[in-house]
Design a protein that fits this description.
6 helices; elongated
Length: about 260
Amino acid sequence: MSFRTLKIISILLPPLLIGSFELIRHSVLLHNLSMETGNYLIILLTLVISYVFTTWMFKMMEEKNHRLATEREMRAVYEERERLAKELHDNIAQTLFLLKVNLKKGKINEASGLVNSIDANVRQAIYNLRVNPLEMISFPKRVENWLNEWSTVSGIETKVTIQLSEGYFNPSEEVQIFGIIQEAFTNIRKHSGAQTAVLLVQMIPHGWEMKIEDDGKGFSKNDRRPSQYGLIMLKERVEKMDAMLDIFSEINKGTKITVKGNDK
């Protein structure tokens, strides 16, 4: 039942109920029912029917809102998987092209590095597409599992600390947070030359905070361009979370990414 139908019923029910009762009372029950008794009866009848109708209506609205929320969450999951599939296609296509060029030029070492890059991209993409945010596995565990695989592939030691209450993020928000983590750690693997990386996600007064740090080569402000280090993807995801992004880096002192969001 649509919200428009519920609105019409809510408007028509009180006048129809009271009007019908008054019509019956004056035409049929006038000599058998006193005015005072009739007044008490219409109050009681209106209260009972209003309670039953309102309870039913709010139950319908809750079910509809829950269904809409589930559909939004599923749409976010499907959109993320489509993005991952496109990203996988584009990355592998570009890397295969470079691999072909290097093989023609006899650059075996460069070609070997590209093969390793393809292997890493495929492994991460398979994991991303295999994991369903709606499955009965906690968000911290999903992140931890992904970073364990990432650490194995990249050879970079990771430390993960996630301090969140159960269900703090809904599934669609988890998709965005997970995407930020993946984008940041993918950039660490590709560009930083780091030995270790740290992830911290925690609740803070009036909101939440995520920190991602590495001990890599870093970069200076002058070297930082809008298209570098996946900044565009990071900014888009952070904006979808209505959060704030801060990136601090110094040459040979690593990079620190901080994302802060408000309480929901």
